Structure formats: C-alpha cells, structure tokens
Amino acid sequence: MDGLVEIPYYIIYFNTGLISYSHIQQFYSFYNNLPNKYYQNLKNIYIVNPSILVKSYNMFKQQTVSKEKILYLKSLKRLIKLDFMNQSLINKISKYVKDYNNYNDPIKTSQNHDKSENMEKKILFGKSLEDLELDQELMIPVIVVHLFSYFENNAQFIQEQGIFRKCATESGIKLVEKELIDKNYEYLNRVEDPHIVASCIKRFFIQLPEPIFPFKQYEKIKKFSVIQDQYEFKKKLQEIIEEIPILNYNVLKNIQIVFVAFVQFIFKTFNLRISLQFCKLSINF
One short Pfam family name for this protein (predicted)? Predict the structure, then answer.
C-alpha cells in the first residue's frame, strides 16, 4: 500500500450476492484503520453490481470513507469503460474472479495454480509489462534492456538487410525466449543471426495484452489530430502522454531512442513505420 501514498488510486469492490455482502464489514475494518495519508490520494471507491443492502450499509455514511467518493456501477462493462482501466487490469480482474469461484474447491484450486505457474514459467512473450522483472535503474522490463542492447552493442547488425522486416526461424525465436526465461542473458551475445533478436523484439510487442501506447490514449490523439495550431496540438499531446502509465512511458521513451538510431543509419521514417506497424506500438515515428 505504501506505493499508493504518492499517486492517485482507486478501490473497486465487487458485490456478487449475499456472500459478498458479508465481507463488507471486513473491508470497512481494513479501510477504516488505514493512516490518514492513504485517504488523500484516493480518487474513488467503485462498488460494482451494488444491491440495496450494499447501498444501505452504514460504512458509506461515515466521514472517513468520504461518501462523495463512492460511485456505484451497475455492471462490469461500465467498469471496463473507465479511463484508468487497461487490458492488463481487466485480465487481472478475470483471474481474481476465477480464483474466487474456485475458492471452495481446494483440490481444483491447487491444480489450477500449479498449472498456471508451469505455464507462466514456459512463456515470456505475451505477459503484461507489470508481470515482467524490471531493471532497477531504467525501470523497464529487463528483457527489453537486453534485447535492445544486442543492437546497441553490435552496430553492424543495424545495417543488416531486411532487419525488422525479414522473419527468423521459429526455433531460433523459441530458443532465445527459453534462455531469457532462464535469465541466461549472456546467450544473446552468442546469437549470430540479428533477425532472430529483431523477431523477438517484434514478438514481444505484438503479444503484449495492450500496446505500449494504450488504446484509449491513441484514440484521443486521433480525435484532435486535425488541430492545425501546433502549440495547441503539442499541449493536447502532452496532456495525453501524462496519462500514459509510467511503466509504459519508460519503455516508450527508451525504445524510441533506439529506433531513432535505426532511422539515422539506414531507414527512412516511413519505411521503419511499415516494418513495425504491426507491433502494436500505435505511434508514429
């Protein structure tokens, strides 16, 4: 919770019936015992699928809870449409629901947990940014650092014909993924075919649950892209960039530096954009 002190945050309470209602007292006890500093950055408490019983609960009349911050959402669809929601959060909510449904079946829950852990260990591409180990200096996924360092340390590969356009062998990509899962980052230094690493970079972005530049921010940019005044356009753009999750922003900032280097060496901006347009970056270089 300490990480929430300095940033705005939300609390979401899912009401799923009488059983869920019985837990409200526990939720209130937890919330009411928090230090005052945690209330300052609380934006809203969302109650999803509220019943009459939930709405009438006394906790929502207490000053500590700040009644004006409580919003009722009739369905999960309305929650998903909120500005701060993204695909990663939606996926996590789905997982929470599944875990809750299996709560009364310990054997099934244990089997599913073991199966899920084994699956997670076997894949790297396809995970959300939040689920990846971060480099403590750059605050971006470690694998992004090593994949892009491959080209930074081997400048000659930047000039390889068809780089980021030609596809590598599936076996080569899978082998690199396996070594990265095992944290054998030195293996990249022995990869002689730059197309394999370039394909890994593309696959990493393609298989992200949500683009580095989130859909919602991208849609907002499209709406005011017709603005002629450059000052007004930059101002609007800056506002949207500030809405990007900090982890996404850090990755976006670091990868653009590398891609600019590619442009300076051999690509025209337009050609680079064609090579990477399917990587779900949703930005124009």
Answer: RhoGAP
